[in-house]
Amino acid sequence: MKTTRLLPWMLFLSGILTYSIGLWRACPLLSGKGYFFGVLMTGMFVTYVYQRAENLDQSDDRFASVCQMVALITIGLLLVGVWNAPLSPLEKGLYPVAFIICLLGQVLLLRLQNMGD
Q1: pTM of the complete model
Q2: Is residue 11 within 8 Å of 103, Cβ to Cβ?
């Protein structure tokens, strides 16, 4: 049971730390750091709102479509930002993966929390 609780936290924290620390060091300008932080916060917010609505059975098709659209726009902004940032090819693949791992950990944490209630 402890492994079940530890895995989502490990995914969430490793994803957010890899994304945040890596891009903080890679982006020379404060505006770039703010851009990537904003993308992370938008992705985490839309994931949280969608999961919360699903858990409370308040989600409908229109709400799900809006959440999907915002998630796709956020991922698109992340990919455009990573493509145009002065990063090595390894980093250009690492940071989107860290972003997805962070969101996956968040979803698993929210589902685990819902199961505990």
Answers
A1: 0.86
A2: no
Is the Cα torsion angle 81, 84, 85, 88 positive or negative in sign?
positive
Nearest to 8 by CA among 101, 115, 93, 91: 101
DSSP letters, 38-69, are HHHHHHHHHHHHHHHHHHTT---HHHHHHHHH
18-30, pLDDT tens digit by residue?
A: 988 888 888 878 8
Q: Counting every residue, how long is the chain?
A: 117
- pLDDT tens by residue, 84-101: 888 888 888 999 999 999
Our CA dihedral for 69, 70, 73, 78, rounded to 10 degrees, sits at: -140
Q: What is the mean pLDDT of the chain?
A: 87
Which tokens in the block code for residue 117? 């209630």
Euclidean distance between CA atoms 70 and 80, whole angstroms: 15
CA distance 75 to 60: 23
- Cα–Cα distance measured from residue 7 to residue 4, given in angstroms and rounded to the nearest whole number: 6
